[in-house]
Amino acid sequence: MAKTKELSKDTRKSIVDLHQTGKTESTIGKQLGVKKSTVGAIIRKWKTYKTTDNLPRSGAPRKISSRGVKMIMRTVSKDPRTTRGDLVNDLQRDGTKVTKVTISNTLQRQGIKSRSARRVPLLKPVHVQARLKFAREHMDDTAEDWENVMWSDETKVELFEQRISDMEDGVTDLAGRLAEAEGRIKVMAKGLDDLENRSRRDNIRIINLKEGAEGESPTQFFEAWLPATLGLGHSSAGKARIKIDRAHRGLGPRGAHPRPVIIKLHNSGDKQRIMAAVKAAPELHHDGQRIFIHQDFSYAIREKRRGFNASCRALIDKGIRFRMRYPATLVLTYNGNEHKFESPKDAQSFINALD
How far apart are CA 34 and CA 5, in angstroms? Predict the structure, then answer.
């Protein structure tokens, strides 16, 4: 059965988007003209790996297809005296270009080894003519001329070819291991980033607060400053209603811009209250300087989100509502339809098309 054409990235992304909206596999298949089994396979892949892209394979594919191997085996079975050169020519006529070493490797994998014939086969007419031509061209050569000729030894040539074949097999095996290792590294890096963000889930980050504003006791300062700045109020006991475990400046030397403040909250509910108050407040200021309060993410996610800054500014100018979904997906609503973008380039192209 012939291999079907691979679905485009846009089609696979549409399948996932429709699945997230709650549509069934049958409905998605009918809407996009894709088989239900294919829709199910793409959704399962997205749930497992959080991507619909092709995953790295363990090694390069065989140069000779299974059909080509069958053709080689038929030819060799019919005529055991078939040479590697003949097989190379047969495959080349069939559209596959390989070397003699590849032919040798294929035959060895099929359990066939080369042997020297007990009787030398008769020369073909083309060989007779070639030898006669060579003899006539060199008939008048002197003994000194023949001393300068290097004669190849059949055994040494076969030995070198075998070594080259072993080296090619080794390189192919290493390439497969390298691809597998790169895939594992990506999975581990993604896992580490996820663990880092889990450890930051109760953190907030304050930007542009003047250096030294927190004094010598940052924890006590922010326990009082956050409720007062955000209008959260205090408890009946007179203590701050927000409990902070740690508060410190980000690493790095002091410069023209204040270093960010990272605060670890004791209760996860306090973070929700703070972010809701930040969203409701038009602007926040301290000592005549505007400040910003954000969720605290890993460096990788912050960089991904920073890539959407230009798109977010353009959406604000156009008055289009949007939000950032974890980890770094821009979600906007336009004409009653929800659009999601994981690439800043795709988001900017969509916004430019609105003009």
Answer: 11
No. of helices (H) and no. of strands (E), the chain: 14, 8
SS3 sequence of 127-139: HHHHHHHHHHHCC
194's enclosing H/E stretch is helix 154-199
β-strand partners of 294: 205
Q: How far apart are CA 209 and CA 221, in angstroms?
A: 13
What's the pLDDT tens digit per position in 110-124? 888 877 666 666 788
Q: Write out pLDDT tens, residues 17-39.
A: 998 999 899 999 898 888 999 99
Q: How many CB atoms lie within 10 A of CB 254?
A: 10
C-alpha dist (Å) from residue 128 to 28, 119, 125: 69, 18, 5
Q: Which two tokens stand for residue 239?
A: 């203590």
What DSSP letter does each residue of 278-327 carry, written as one string?
Answer: HHH-S-EEETTEEEEEEE---HHHHHHHHTTHHHHHHHHHHT--EEEETT
Report d(CA 241, CA 235) in Å as an integer.
Answer: 6
Contacts of 225 (CB under 8 A, 6+ apart): 214, 286
Question: Is the peptide bond prior to 258 cis by the omega test (within 30 degrees of 0)?
Answer: no
- C-alpha separations of 189 from 3, 99, 170, 198 in Å: 34, 40, 28, 14
Lowest mean pLDDT among 26-35, 233-242, 288-297: 233-242
Backbone angles phi, psi at 245, to 5 degrees: -85, -45
How far is the C-alpha of 18 from the C-alpha of 230, rounded, in Å? 39
